[in-house]
Every structure is written in structure tokens, then in C-alpha cells.
Amino acid sequence: QLQLQESGPGLVKPSETLSLTCTVSGDSFSSSGHYWAWIRQPPGKGPEWVGSVSHGGSTSYNPSLKSRVTISVDTSKRQFSLKLRSVTAADTAIYSCARTVGGLVNWFDPWGQGTLVTVSS
Amino acid sequence: DIQLTQSPSTLSASVGDRVTITCRASQNIYSWLAWYQQKPGKAPELLIYKASSLASGVPSRFSGSGSGTEFTLTISSLQPDDFATYFCQQFISYPLTFGGGTRVEI
To answer: Which of A45, A107, A114 is opposite residue B49, by nearest beta carbon?
Structure first.
């Protein structure tokens, strides 16, 4: 059974870079057709798609974050990573990783449990 | 961006009740909609994809319907395990967007 687990600092200072990693276990990471996504959910709000990456490294980002986001993949480690630069308090959220089933534009299944990242000095 | 509006934002119900949650899209998304359940401190779980297809392992009391701009998630007989937050997601175009969520409480 495919499982995803986020890891990274829970506290980031304003103007710094948020860095998170998602480790995938239990299934083939390089199965063709799937994409790997980052999704965030600010406190009390609905989720927001941040961006996605394929096992080959192709990326797509939410235009609202595109200037600050980089998502990369390391297939040898079965991991993909998120970097969000120049963070502010508005970037405080639960960040989750997920698989986009069968393509770049599709539903998400499964999700990781999520990790709370707080932006504060 | 396609906006998804869920209603109600909070729903109070009892075990055994029939519950309906609505998701309205700002433009036609055909049947490209998914529903998720999220419990506190846990990962969201896929319930429904393509508006009405039940995800693997999801109880049959959950059903989805609709197309175009209006969609519903129905729980035919609410169980104690169903008290959670539900949200919808469109996957017809970028950026992928979600509804604001509906909290189902006792």
C-alpha cells in the first residue's frame, strides 16, 4: 500500500525558505503516468494546490506561488521536495504531499498526514 | 481560476441521518470533481472521483452526483465514524482548486 510521509522544519522565519521532503513507500515510485503533488491548508481554510512533479522531473506550479516555488524529485531516494522562498505569515499552513492519480490533472490519492509549518520570528 | 463553493460550511446531524453537501463550481467542470473526507490530525481520504465513482474501500453509504456546475455528496445514513470535514476538488483545469470544506458535527 502506497504511503507518503512529509518531513522538515515546523518553524521558519519570515523571508527565509521553507523546505519539505516527502518520502514515498510501499509502491513503485516511478510508475508512469502518476504525478506527485504538494498541497497546503492554512488554518481554517480549504486546501490549496501548490504544485506537482513527475518522476521524470516535469513540474507544474500554482500561478499564485510560481515565482517562489521549486519542486524537485529524487527517484533513487523515492522522495520529492518543496522549496518555498521568501515566506511570510500567510504561508503558515499544514503542508501535505499526495499522489496525483494517473496524470498531471487529476484527483489526489493517497495523501500524507501533513505537517504544520509556522512562519514566525 | 475555477472557484468551488461548498454549502453549508457546518452541518449538525445525528447518527442515522441522511446528509447532503453541495459543491458549486464557478464554471462548467463537466464531471471532473472529487470529494475527500478529513478527520482531525489525519490525512484526507479520497471518497469519490469523477463526480460519482466510489473510491476503493469507501462504504456504499457515500455517493456523489451532479455535473456541470452543481454537485452533491450524500451520506445515506450517518455513522459515528463520518463526523469529519468534507471538501471537493476540481480537476478540469489549472490551477487545481478545492472547496472551502464542510464540517459535519454531532
So the answer is: A107
Provide Rg for chain A, Cα atoms: 13
Could you tell me how far CA A113 lies from the centroid of its own chain? 12
Alpha-carbon distances of B21 from B6, B42, B46, B58, rounded to whole Å? 7, 21, 16, 17
pLDDT tens for the 121 residues of chain A, in order? 899 999 999 999 999 999 999 999 987 777 667 899 999 999 888 999 999 999 889 999 999 999 999 999 998 999 999 999 999 999 999 999 999 988 888 999 999 999 999 999 9
Q: What share of chain B is helix, strand, coil (3-state, %, to 5)?
A: 5, 50, 50
* Chain B residues near any Cβ of chain A (below 8 Å): 6, 34, 36, 41-46, 49, 55, 87, 89, 91-101
- Residue A51: name the closest of A63, A43, A34, A41 by CA: A63
Helix (H, G, I), strand (E, B) or coil at A105: coil
Whether residue A107 and residue B46 make contact (CB cut-off 8 A), yes or no, is yes
CA distance B96 to A104: 10
| Contact between A47 and B49 using a beta-carbon 8 Å cutoff | no
